[in-house]
Every structure is written in structure tokens, then in C-alpha cells.
Write a structure and sequence with these properties.
By secondary structure, the protein is mainly beta. The protein folds into 2 domains: about 90 residues, Immunoglobulins (Immunoglobulin-like); about 140 residues, NPCBM/NEW2 domain (Jelly Rolls). Helices cover about 10% and strands about 50% of the residues. Strands 3, 4, 6, 7 and 8 form a 5-stranded antiparallel β-sheet that branches. Strands 9-14-19-16-17 form a 5-stranded antiparallel β-sheet, with no helix packed on it. It is elongated. About 25% of the residues are buried.
């Protein structure tokens, strides 16, 4: 009889353990994954993440040091725009998902961590809507002018060999947000034609506000221009007579200011 009772007790305990294990597995919630962070203005960034299966919502946290995270928002959506960020300051983000089990919130582990540093670089804030002979340089991607590496800009190519003559341009829709722009420009070091000459025109709302004459061998120039809250801003490089062949004009560290 004792042997029978022992067998029954063992069986009951095994079933209870299996039930507990199944319940624990059912209550477990998967952590979400941060996908990307995109700068949306001079002082805001959009944080996006993947859906966690079975999640009721998400809690997003941020830090400016990588330690001491603060809760930013609780939401059921898969993205959030963080506003009033300080320019050129690095922000760290992570999140966790949750669901309700018997009226109580159960949380997942934390997601991966992603960071962003909001800048006032034009190419971080706007993509050109119309281009010709255009190459963009973002992040760690660089090009050289006067044997110096430059970042955060683009290169426009021109050609004055044969017919037709090719110019290069990039048009941006700034939506009237900025009063000034600053940039460094000159010939990209990959330009091989020692007689290269081009004209650079900066055009705001279809009005030329400044022109510059470029000659091969000139040092780079850094300029600041008033653009008076223009909507459309165009960088146009046109080859001059003489100096045959393809060449490249670089624009670096292009910053906009309110």
C-alpha cells in the first residue's frame, strides 16, 4: 500500500511540476529589438523597434551617459519621437516589453542599446529631392580635398569634354526652417585635370544668392550664407570653357542654422 501511495504521490508531483513549467513558459515574454534611430529635426529623433510577440506594450528608456537610464514613455506603438534634444549630445536608448498576467504587468529583459547624436548637418536632416552627378558622404564615409579628409557632405561632378557639357546639382527642400548655411568647398583630390575651372552657384528659391569661381589648385574655402528661410536650396556646379574632362567639387561639413 505504501508503495502504491508513493507512486501516486510521485505522479502528482510530476504533473504539478509540468503544469508549473508550462505556466512559467507561458508567462515569459520576449524582449523587443531596437531597429533604428533617425534624426527628424535639429532637436528630435525617431526611435523604432520590432514587435515582441504577445506584448501588450513597451517601456522606452534613455540616458545621456550610457548609465542611469530614465523612463521616457510607455506606449503600445512601435516607435516614438524624442523631442527637445540637445544638439551634438549623445543619447542612448533601450526598451523592454510587457504583458499582463493575472492583472499584473510582467516585463521582458531589456533590448539591445542604440545611440544617436543630433547634429545640424544638412545631409543628416534632409535628403535632396533632385540630383545630377551626385555622391553623398554620411557618417564615417569621407572624401579628400587638399589632402585632408572631409565628412558630412557630398560631391558634384562636372564634365566639359565634347558635347553636351555636363553640370552637377543637388536640390533640397528646407521648408523655410533655416536662416543661414555654412559649408566648406573645393575640388575633390580625385580631380585629375590641372586646368579645371568651374562656377559654383548657390540658389535659394530660384534666385542666385552667391557665385564662386573655382580653379584647380585653389585651397578649400569655408563660407557662411544667409538663406532667409528659403524653401528650396540648390547647389549648382557648371563647367567653364577650357579645362576639358571630368572633375569633382566637394561640399563638406554643411551646417544649417535657425
Amino acid at each position: 500500500m505504501k508503495k502504491v501511495l508513493s507512486i501516486i504521490l510521485t505522479a502528482v508531483m510530476a504533473v504539478s511540476c509540468l503544469s508549473f513549467s508550462a505556466g512559467a513558459k507561458k508567462a515569459k515574454i520576449k524582449a523587443p529589438k531596437l531597429k533604428y534611430i533617425t534624426q527628424t529635426s535639429l532637436t528630435s529623433a525617431k526611435i523604432s523597434w520590432s514587435k515582441a510577440s504577445g506584448a501588450k506594450g513597451y517601456v522606452l528608456y534613455y540616458s545621456t551617459t550610457g548609465r542611469g537610464y530614465k523612463k521616457l514613455v510607455t506606449t503600445s506603438k512601435k516607435s516614438y519621437t524624442h523631442k527637445k534634444l540637445k544638439n551634438n549630445k549623445k543619447y542612448y536608448y533601450k526598451l523592454k516589453s510587457y504583458k499582463k498576467v493575472k492583472g499584473k504587468k510582467k516585463y521582458s529583459k531589456y533590448s539591445n542599446i542604440k545611440t544617436i547624436r543630433c547634429t545640424n548637418y544638412l545631409v543628416s536632416l534632409h535628403n535632396p529631392y533632385r540630383v545630377k552627378n551626385f555622391e553623398i558622404y554620411k557618417g564615417i564615409k569621407s572624401f579628400k580635398m587638399n589632402d585632408t579628409k572631409y565628412y558630412n557632405g557630398f560631391v558634384l561632378s562636372t564634365e566639359n569634354e565634347g558635347y553636351p557639357i555636363f553640370d552637377g546639382f543637388a536640390d533640397f527642400n528646407l521648408k523655410g526652417k533655416y536662416s543661414k548655411i555654412q559649408f566648406t568647398f573645393g575640388y575633390d583630390d580625385s580631380t585629375e585635370h590641372t586646368k579645371a575651372e568651374d562656377t559654383l552657384s548657390i540658389i535659394a528659391d530660384d534666385e542666385v544668392i552667391k557665385t564662386y569661381e573655382l580653379k584647380y589648385g585653389d585651397l578649400t574655402k569655408t563660407v557662411t550664407l544667409n538663406i532667409d528661410n528659403a524653401n528650396k536650396l540648390e547647389f549648382l556646379v557648371t563647367p567653364k570653357n577650357g579645362g576639358f574632362g571630368r572633375r569633382k567639387v566637394g561640399f563638406a561639413n554643411i551646417r544649417v542654422f535657425k
